[in-house]
Design goal:
The complex is a heterodimer of chains A (about 260) and B (about 110). By secondary structure, chain A is mainly α. Chain A is built from eleven helices and no strands. Chain A has one domain. In chain A, helix 4 packs across helix 6 and helix 8 runs parallel beside helix 11.
């Protein structure tokens, strides 16, 4: 009888272990959701229609006035892509699966799509702000901050530099938002929590430089005649300090 | 003597006057076409200026680590424009006017 009980207990434990292994789902990769958003994204028209990327950046940064007639349809056409992006920014894992073993030929087309989606996100935030919906605008810009972290994740310097192009407008808009009386204390705490959670200089620049050195080593192995120096540490430090100041400005504004 | 001075004074009052132009029928005939030519020249110069000022289309860039890193380090001010251009050509919207579906529907 004792023997039978031992066997039954062993079987039960084994079944439980197998069942628990089956239940453990791998975390959803935000990068896959972003690619879905990229596929649905409609790039804003080029400069020939009078709406340039620079103009969209000025609107996104709040230095140019919102124009519903010109820009409303751009945001509306990208609503689905933006909503996918907003949801994906809340996922904890983002792996772009880059093939760094290819050296300089590693495809990084996602950075181009990400830059445009981030620009659309900034413009969507500006639209909400123009309507006085500062709380919702803050949510959009915070999604922009989280998105920039995902874009930079596991990347070399180019990933961080392009992610920085997306991060800075969100940080500057959050400073403006924090000065609005309609943004309450709870929302300010939310701003401080999200921005405070990102690295002091916006990204882990030292880690990116290590990856850059690895990528350069691969490139030189593939092409021994290659004469490509490492990027200037001083230039990287300068950029990192600029982002550090932008992050500090948000935290200061949120604390007032 | 006084009479002579008086005459001289009167003569000094005369001033030379430019003679009227000799009517030239050929010149009259050209007047219309000259203005048309001037207007055409102004329009042409405006077109040339507008063409020169139009935003230049950046050359296609491969979206690879080596190419984009080089641009980011050597021409950082161009990086944003290059990324924007690459985005338009990768995963293009096939339903847009002039897109692939519109072209196929004409076959």
């Amino acid at each position: 009888m004792k023997r039978v009980l031992e066997v039954l207990t062993t079987c039960a434990v084994a079944v439980c272990l197998l069942a628990s292994r089956g239940d453990a789902q791998p975390a959803t990769n935000a990068a896959l959701r972003y690619w879905m958003a990229f596929a649905l994204m409609k790039d804003p028209p080029d400069g020939r229609s009078g709406i340039t990327a620079e103009f969209l950046d000025r609107v996104g940064a709040g230095t140019a006035a919102w124009d519903e007639t010109q820009l409303g349809s751009i945001v509306d056409d990208n609503r689905e892509a933006l909503m996918i992006m907003w949801r994906a920014t809340k996922l904890p894992v983002c792996d772009w699966g880059l093939e760094y073993e290819l050296g300089p030929q590693t495809p990084i087309a996602h950075l181009a799509k990400a830059r445009v989606l981030a620009r659309l996100n900034a413009v969507a935030g500006a639209r909400l702000a123009s309507r006085g919906e500062w709380g919702r605008a803050v949510d959009v810009w915070l999604a922009g901050v989280r998105f920039s972290q995902h874009v930079a994740n596991g990347g070399t310097l180019i990933s961080l530099l392009s992610a920085r192009l997306s991060l800075s407008p969100s940080l500057k808009s959050l400073v403006r938002a924090a000065s609005q009386s309609s943004v309450d204390a709870g929302r300010r705490q939310q701003i401080a929590a999200v921005v405070g959670a990102i690295p002091d200089a916006g990204f882990d620049w030292a880690d990116a430089m290590r990856r850059e050195a690895d990528a350069l080593a691969i490139a030189k192995r593939l092409n021994p005649g290659l004469n490509a120096p490492m990027p200037s540490q001083a230039a990287v430090d300068r950029t990192a300090n600029e982002v550090r100041a932008e992050r500090r400005a948000v935290l200061d504004a949120a604390a007032k | 003597m006084n009479q002579r001075d008086d005459i001289e004074a009167r003569l000094r009052e005369f001033r030379p006057r430019r003679p009227a132009m000799i009517p030239d029928e050929r010149l009259q005939l050209l007047r219309g076409p000259i203005w048309i030519a001037v207007a055409a020249a102004i329009a042409a110069s405006m077109l040339i200026v507008a063409w020169l000022r139009r935003p230049s289309t950046p050359e296609p860039v491969a979206p690879t680590l080596g190419t984009l890193t080089a641009i980011a380090l050597e021409r950082p001010d161009d990086l944003d424009a290059v990324l924007t251009t690459i985005s338009r050509t990768s995963l293009p919207d096939v339903t847009r006017p002039g897109g692939a579906l519109q072209s196929l529907s004409k076959l």
